[in-house]
Specification:
The chain has a two-stranded antiparallel sheet with strand order 1-2. It has 3 helices and 2 strands, in the order αβαβα. The longest helix is centred in the first third of the chain and has 16 residues. The protein has one domain. It is about 50% helix and about 5% strand.
Length: about 70
């Protein structure tokens, strides 16, 4: 769980630095339960403006990842 929480926080912070806030971003509770938890990160839902901001941020970051 700790690793999933750190990954969630890293993603939240990186999105924030790119000017994007996903209001429903969080850990998926169902995937964290059970004997062998998967700890999925739920990106949730967002409005059109947020989707466009995310697309812009991803396109801007493509050159940096190469």
């Amino acid at each position: 769980m700790g690793d999933a929480e750190r990954a969630w926080a890293e993603l939240r912070d990186a999105l924030k630095a790119a000017g994007v806030t996903l209001p429903s971003l969080g850990l998926d509770a169902a995937s964290c339960a059970g004997s062998a938890p998967l700890a999925w990160i739920d990106l949730g839902r967002c409005n059109v403006a947020t989707a466009r901001a995310l697309a812009t941020a991803l396109r801007a970051g493509q050159g940096a990842a190469r």
